Amino acid sequence: MQPEKIEHIYQSNLELFSQANVSYQQWQHEPILDFEADERIGKKLGWTAAPTKSLFMKVKGGGHCLLLTHRDSRLNSKLVKQVLGKRVSVCTHEEMIEEIGCAPGAVCPFGLPADITLLVDPVVYSYQDLMFTPGKPDMTFAFAATDLDKLLEELPNTVIPLPGE
């Protein structure tokens, strides 16, 4: 992990919520780096928001993208290829750490370099609240799903909504 990049991502998230005028909740807890810890800590803290997954991928021919989806959703690589016009593959842990500084299991959908395309699975809009890790594995943020577009509009990244399946 790259502590300076992670701190930058975390601070960028705080600024993003402020700029977009979006209310959020924040928790500090033991590090979450896998689904088992996520489930255990979520039960302990009484989380009700839908857990998101940020899947970091490389695009064939160069570049990267990130898919924001629900934790239990699977990657539909054919749909992503249809939208981007290029194939994608999931980055290795080493590639991800090198590119964005996040640890596996703690990838954040916001605060990333501007050249990373953000793909948004429409399933995330079907929940009342969403939660994610802001780069730091020991922090979790939650916000109303109806505010997601406000946050996305503030990003310098290209944002592409995936079509519903």
Q: What would you say about this model in short?
A:
This protein has 165 residues and is of the alpha/beta class.
Annotate the secondary structure layout.
Layout: H1 3-20, E1 25-28, H2 35-45, E2 50-59, E3 64-70, H3 77-84, E4 88-90, H4 93-100, E5 117-120, E6 129-132, E7 139-144, H5 148-153, E8 159-161
Parallel strand pairs: 2-6, 3-5, 5-8
Antiparallel strand pairs: 1-7, 2-3, 2-4, 6-7
Task: Describe what this molecule looks like in 3D.
- This protein is an alpha/beta fold.
- The chain is 31% helix and 25% strand.
- It is built from 5 helices and 8 strands, in the order H-E-H-E-E-H-E-H-E-E-E-H-E.
- The chain has helices spanning 3-20, 35-45, 77-84, 93-100, 148-153, and strands at 25-28, 50-59, 64-70, 88-90, 117-120, 129-132, 139-144, 159-161.
- Strands 1, 2, 3, 4, 5, 6, 7 and 8 form an 8-stranded mixed beta sheet that branches.
- A hairpin with a 4-residue loop joins strand 2 (50-59) and strand 3.
Main pleated-sheet profile: 8 strands, mixed
Q: What's the helix count?
A: 5
How many angstroms separate the termini? Answer: 35 Å
Quaternary organization: single chain
Averaged pLDDT, please?
Answer: 94
Low-confidence stretches: none
The percent of residues in helical segments reads 25-40%
| Gyration radius, rounded | 15 Å
Order of helices and strands: HEHEEHEHEEEHE
Q: What is the approximate shape?
A: globular
> Approximately how much beta-strand content do the residues carry?
15-25%
Structural class: alpha/beta
Structure summary, number of beta strands: 8
